[in-house]
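yo, TRPV5 protein is done. seq:
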Amino acid sequence: TGNTVLHILVLQPNKTFACHMYSLILSYDRSKEGPGSLELIPNKEGLTPFKLAGVEGNTVMFQYLMQKRKQNLWSFGPLTTVLYDITEIDSWAEDQSFLELIVSTKKREARQILDLTPVKELVSLKWNMYGRPYFCFLALFYILYMVCFTMCCVYRPLKPRTGNRTSSRDNTVYVQKLLQESYVAYEDELRLVGELITVIGAVVILVLEIPDILRVGAAKYFGQTILGGPFHIIVITYACMILVTMVMRLTSTTGEVVPMSFALVLGWCNVMYFARGFQMLGPFTIMIQKMIFGDLMRFCWLMAVVILGFASAFYIIFQTENPENLGQFYNYPMSLFTTFELFLTIIDGPANYDVDLPFMYSVVYFAFAIIATLLMLNLLIAMMGDTHWRVAHEQDELWRAQVVATTVMLERKLPRCLWPRSGICGREFGLGERWYLRIEDRVDPNKHKMMRYTEAFKAQDRDIYDKGSEKLETHGDKKELSALSLSRSTSRTSSHRGWEILRRNT
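structure:
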């Protein structure tokens, strides 16, 4: 029951009352240390009161709990060394990481905790010492891997076509070799080494991604933009396309160019994931994701309706004409593709103007140009501009959340020998088995002097206001107005003089 009350207090809107009640309830806790403590008992979601404060974005309660956990090591003049307990914050030995909970929650207030002590210092320590070097090495390794795969695709086994053409539009010159013919020469053996590296890399990607999907859940794993959700979809699809290409190569099935081309596009697009390691490029990856999966997905439904309607109209208009003089509307699939190009203004009207065109072509093309080019494309630009404006106001906050998510991901997947635990064990200071982060805080004496000046001026203004109120109570209506104006002018003059003294001293 006491643990339930603690969780309820974390959710209270009155932060001051919640902190006092929280301290009162803990004062009656018999087992203040160890697993029996009320503060360490999780709820049904596996969240302790400390983690719940972070997930809910309750910065007041979070700072209150951190102040209870800190230990002042020593103080010398303006310098103070403080040990912060990071047992629940550090993701090194936590199944449900506090940092991962913060970046995966949908509440924006929770991300503000990433800028508070000691979370900010812990993330900075992990990222600068281990996260950034490992992430840059991983980015370089992935680019070299994609170059290897691209070269294997460029030099894939082909042979000249021997059969006759069945149509005047048939332009095929080379065909795919059979499996027995693909690995004969020395160049084929070099390509085989690259193909083996590509397949092994695809298997490693699936082995690393599938456990996280099972642990977190597909909806949360693929749906969180900060966690890189769309990029996880891209890299898993890429790995599957590689395995499909391998099966088609082993069975000598024609058409391997389809999964191979998909894999090339997806593999190189996934390079954008590594832009999150740089503050200049990181926010742009989130901006691209929000535009693609927000604005563009909604716009594609409207675009599909317009293209389908006008492509059908164009095909019907030229259906009775000679196919050899129809330009790019000779069949229905080509009409759809041509209308899509017209929609994006990639090409102009592709009809053959050397022959007489149907009258309805000009009418339909005029309507299409007005609706598609002038209306819908400008609507898309306006939607993307609004998304850019919203993301630009949060870019620093989003980049910090990206860094935290990347750090937690690397810490989980790298061996323990490559990523030692951050902080100091409490045994060195006689504080038990808990882990602490040492932070040096410099107290600025001028700051305290300015605060004393400010409090003095506030007190002076309150005294003057009280005197003015007494005059208002003792005098009549006319004297009340004069006393009020006098007290206000005196207050403004005294306050102005006080702030001038403060500015000069500063």
